[in-house]
Amino acid sequence: MIELRTFHDCLHGYLEKFDSLITRYEHTTNTCREFESVIDDYSIFITSESNRETWEQIAQQETSDFDQLLSNLRKKSAQCVAIMEKDRALKLLNGNDGMSDYFKNIESCIEKEFGGFQINSESKVLLIGSGSFPMTPLLIAKQTGAEVVGIDIDNEAIKLGLNVVKRLGSELNIRLENKLIEDLNFSHEATHIIFSSTVERKYEILDQLHSITNQNIVVAMRYGNGLKSLFNYPMKKVNEQKWKMVDNLLRPDHVFDIALYKKA
Fold first, then answer.
1. Would you give the distance in Å from CA 114 to the centre of its chain?
2. Distance CA 176, CA 159 (A)
3. How many domains does the chain have?
4. Structure pTM?
5. How much is the pLDDT for 107?
């Protein structure tokens, strides 16, 4: 277990690295390796057992300054991941794809995303926060034959994501759209919904989804509590008259955990 002062220094160090990378980003792949190196290191940091022990000590003496640091780290790391996905998409489209440890960690989470509520060829899956390199839609559609729709508020991410799908899975039933949930007809048809862990308003959107989805919908909410909240938006309470949590898939070695919800 590292000392509290060292832990704080590490967090401030990561924030400085994130700020520097974001400031220097020029919409090219020139800084791609730097992004990958920092995010891979950060992923190891938030899944470290010894760091979890230190976090538990810090959580007992939280301050407003620490809360602000936590919020900044979460937002900046999410920005860096979004940029890293764009870099990976550009590298693939230029014929030079590589796989960082972060992407390997994410992809290993996807296979059993829904626990006992498995996806099949008849399923209709909606991903909220699909990003520039839509790994989840590609893997789900390829492994199950399901219809998958991804949405993202970043139009550049949608354009890159469409080109990635065209390159890696043109035969798959995948659509990516730059739409809000209320403007998407597919919301009414979906059998499964996945929230990216870096979607800040995910619990607000979940509340909104109750009235526009079918009664048997299954929602996989990627989240991170405790130490993992440095990288992911954490779990929140839900309106128990609308939603109930039916499973909580805790994965110590992965960068996020998954809460499964069904309608109450």
1. 15
2. 9
3. 2
4. 0.90
5. 57
